[in-house]
Amino acid sequence: MKEHKVIIDANKKGYLPNLKEVFRYKDLLYTLAYRDFRVRYAQTFLGFLWSFAKPLATLGVLFIIFGKAVKVDTQGVPYPLFAICGMSAWTYFSFVMTQAGSSLIFSQNMLKKIYFPRLVIPLSKALLGLVDFAIVLLIIVGLLLYFQYTPSINLAYLPLFVLLAVVSALGIGIWISALSIRYRDFQQITPFLVQFGFFITPIAYSSTALTNNLSSAGMLLYYLNPAAGIVEGFRWSILGVGELSDAVWISISVSLLLFVTSLFYFRKVEETMADII
Amino acid sequence: MSEKISIQIKGISKRYKIGAAKADSLKDTISSGAQMVLGGKNKTEDFWALKDISIDVPKGKVLGIIGKNGAGKSTLLKILSRITKPTKGTVEINGRVSSLLEVGTGFHPELTGRENIFLNATILGMSRKEVKDKFDAIVDFAGIGKFIDTPVKHYSSGMYVRLAFSVAANLEPEILIIDEVLAVGDADFQRKCLGKMSEVSQNEGRTVIFVSHNMGAIKDLCDEVIYIKGGEVDAVGTAEEMTNKYLEDNLRKYTDTEIEIPENERAGNGKVRIKSVRFISPETKLPIDTVFCGQEGLIEISYKANSPEDLNGFDIRMNVVDSNKQFHSQFSIELWGKQMDQIPTQGKIYCKIPKIPFSHGEFYLVANALVNRELADNFVPSRFTVVQADFFGNGGRKPSGSPQGVYVDHEWYLA
Lengths: 277, 415
Known about the structure:
The structure holds 2 protein chains of 2 kinds.
Chain A: E1 5-9, H1 19-24, H2 26-40, H3 50-69, H4 79-106, H5 108-113, H6 120-146, H7 158-182, H8 185-200, H9 208-211, H10 216-223, H11 226-239, H12 248-270, H13 273-276
Chain B: E1 5-18, H1 26-37, E2 45-58, E3 62-66, H2 73-80, E4 88-94, E5 97-100, H3 113-123, H4 128-142, H5 157-169, E6 175-179, H6 187-203, E7 207-211, H7 215-221, E8 224-229, E9 232-237, H8 239-251, E10 272-280, E11 287-288, E12 290-292, E13 297-305, E14 314-322, E15 327-332, H9 333-336, E16 346-353, E17 361-371, E18 374-378, E19 382-387
Parallel strand pairs in B: 3-7, 3-8, 5-6, 6-7, 12-19
Antiparallel strand pairs in B: 1-2, 1-4, 8-9, 10-11, 10-13, 13-16, 14-15, 14-17, 17-18, 17-19
């Protein structure tokens, strides 16, 4: 075994995110995600079927309200297919944001008892969210077959948008998790973000409906929401409808900015976490 | 630095801010920030949990850390295991550290034993491959065999600890930190763990840091013991010296005088409160702290009840234990089996022991007051020393042998 040496110095402060250490604990990341996955449906009768039931139920409601009653413009795409593409991104995004945001508070027992790079905890939620995401993808494939809809060539870009969803959801989640160590107020904020986010993101409707009615300043504001660009990107790459507006770059930049700054802030509070939480 | 040192602690201090926890919401931070700008005074207070601690721990040694609750033992361990950062000073650690977690910390009740081994071990910094390699050894040592695929919520607390200890001990860390967890688990397993710990340190040259209130285990295991008092190193020495000093310090104040224990530190429903428990001399009736094996003993208990009604069904129950909390005997009015009439609401009650059966060394009287078999009060242990003497009254051999225990009168005959 190679020599392992650690120096703890009260006067030394770390500023750079210690990603090397996180990588060393990558198996913990995997195990934590596995634990959450296993535990989620423990002692439920339907078990894993819940993962199918939840998105299908949401989809049903959206279909009745926005597909049948309100009839939003989907540029010729069958409504269920239109909605589920938006939902797939949003469900992942909101899940990771919420779970990562509250993850440190929920693991405080562990934080107070043992050392490991704390970043592993919120990161593991991104991995966990991919399970639900894969299920929604299966539903999408099912619907594509049912409506005999051929996906566009843009599909090649989908992995990029998935990565963007991971990065942006983690960015917000890590910020909230680190802030709520000291200020529990931030725990109250996530449900609002999820609730408002559902409406200010083009999930159930198409963003073209807004482009025509909003000023350019309004559009800028709209795309400051990282989820807006990501949802748009998902729909564009799977269904190939419409054109990706330049405004998507705003969402992408916001995502990256949130993620990078969250890593630095997390590093700043990491060392004192166990004392404050 | 020499290769022989596994942990070098230099001038470690740790400050906590008392009252700082209040700044738990944004509102508080904003208002205290405003206060500071306006020149108001800071309402937090500093508390130094550790003050300038310096220790070198040599490789392959078992270091014991003892001290009262709140002395700073846990803070020191937290710094060594990198959970929290010191306010001052440096620590140099050579080798991988693994700590035995408090029961349940690294476990999830819904997961099976197998899954929890992986969970716990990866939390401790192992890779899945390493766990796989050591899996059989871990299961073997924990002795949970066929329950390995049962969710741990169905485990007994003993099985829980066995599994947790087994994971930590089989990680083959260069440094193993054990904080007062072995209190749970049966005696057999405790012995096995202690055995494993000394094996780990002696044969494999690994370092063990062991914190415990069990002076017996400290004595058995540790090469060197550090006694921490009020956040400072009070003394360093052999296990024998330090455990004696510890017991000395903690029990001196309980002999002789009546003591007032604050109401919030007491257990029981409070119908009756015990004020003192002590041996007195049968002749002079003065308090004593040393008695002789085989001679008459007299225990005096002062008590006070709220009202005469509260004394219906009154009982005093005293357990005699040694410093390892090992039980030796019990005295109680109920065991005696006779009625006492007209017990005054306050006063003194005596328990006479015709012949003290305890062999030698230090014992403790742990007295409880009961009313109708419900706990009314629980008194601090009172220490007394037994001097080895002629129990069997034959003037001949004084019984000897190191373990403490109880003698019983007996006879022999041929059929």
